[in-house]
Amino acid sequence: MRLVSFTTKSGQKSYGTVEGDIVLDAGAVLKERFSDLRAVLEKNAVQELAGKGEAIALTEVTLLPPIGNPEKILCVGLNYTSHIEETGRPRPAQPALFTRYPSSLIGHDQPLIRPKASHEFDYEGELVVIIGKSGRHISKDDAMSHVAGYTCMNEGSIRDYQIHTSQFWPGKSFEASGSIGPWIVTADEITDITQETVTTRINGEIVQQARFDDLAFSIPEIIAYISTVITLIPGDVIATGTPGGVGKFRKPQLYLVPGMVAEVEITGIGALINSVADE
């Protein structure tokens, strides 16, 4: 099942499912029970969305980040062999974690914003895990049972701000600098996520591509590590890292500029597409 959050032409926020080129507006039917997709996940009620709601053409809605109000957005840095090699840094002994905030992420088909403060605006195509079941001290063997589904992220990075100090946060949190979506594909739709592939294209040219079996830390390892520190809850967002090929380490460097189109496509999930505009 493909789960979406969206705004209708009348400006009403809702949620539902995608079937082909239509959205079923389940939120119009179920809003009194579930305010949004995060509430649906909290009640373990995803199956109740199936077939619910009026059909609306996908082109008639504006897609929002699938989980608009996550309690946590947690990101893993340096998590592909190819990206570790291009940075010249050693492989981390433990997952390198940092946070983002909801205001830093937009939805599919919305413009990524290059900030006034810097033009070192880089792309990072990533697989995102959406948590569906709460847990603390989750074992690696049990970790995948806590996954509700997957989506795509362009984890846009402002590189000079990222390296102002040893803390990544400033370069990862500029408003509307990243994107997520277009929808969540539920975990039951993906037989083996490690065999899927992420591809990033800038103006149609492939700049990143990797299978998820190239992750330095696997999804179960990431979930187990994070849950040692903090309780994961439904709707939490975990971005699993980006492959080699980012703009900063290309020769010549390739940074995002207004007029470009960035696409992050993951097999079995779909394509997240965004233009680029100036603040």
UniProtKB/TrEMBL annotation:
One example GO MF annotation: hydrolase activity
Domain of life of the organism encoding this protein: Bacteria
Keyword Metal-binding listed: yes
InterPro entries according to UniProt: FAH, Fumarylacetoacetase-like_C, Fumarylacetoacetase_C_sf
Keywords linked to the UniProt accession: Hydrolase, Metal-binding
Species for this entry: Paenochrobactrum glaciei
Protein name as catalogued: Fumarylacetoacetate hydrolase family protein
Fumarylacetoacetase-like C-terminal domain span: 72-276
Pfam families xrefs: FAA_hydrolase (PF01557)
Keyword Hydrolase: yes
Family, similarity comment: Belongs to the FAH family.
